[in-house]
Amino acid sequence: MGRQTGYSKLTCDRCGRTAFLQSGNADAQSWYDVNHLTSTSAASAQPPSTYTLCGDCYKAFQSFAATADAEFEKWVKDADREEQS
Ligand SMILES: [Zn+2]
Predict the structure, then answer these.
(1) d(CA 41, CA 26)
(2) Rounded CA gap, 47 and 18, in Å?
């Protein structure tokens, strides 16, 4: 097979790992595009930033994001406990 087409080059935006994968390949399904809103973009019309993550970094992201989600939920519900200044 001299020439094969339909490959994507994936680069992890966190660890820099790269892979050439054909769409639909099982390995391609372990890569994820994750949208992230910063504190600035969350209150504006700016679109979220998209990061491509390899499987390992996606697992790390899930753990990180679960912690961040819990902190946000706690912060939202904690207004009464904040000191009034
Ligand atoms: Zn990675």
Answers:
(1) 34
(2) 25
Q: Distance from the CA of 2 to the center of ligand 1, in angstroms?
A: 31
Q: Do residues 20 and 8 make contact, with C-beta atoms less than 8 angstroms apart?
A: yes
pLDDT in tens, 47-67: 899 999 999 999 999 999 999
58 alpha carbon – ligand 1 mean position (Å): 7
pTM (2 d.p.): 0.79
CA 77 to ligand 1 centroid distance, Å: 33
CA–CA distance from 45 to each of 24, 35, 75 (Å)?
33, 14, 23
Nearest to 31 by CA among 39, 42, 23: 23
pLDDT at 84: 55
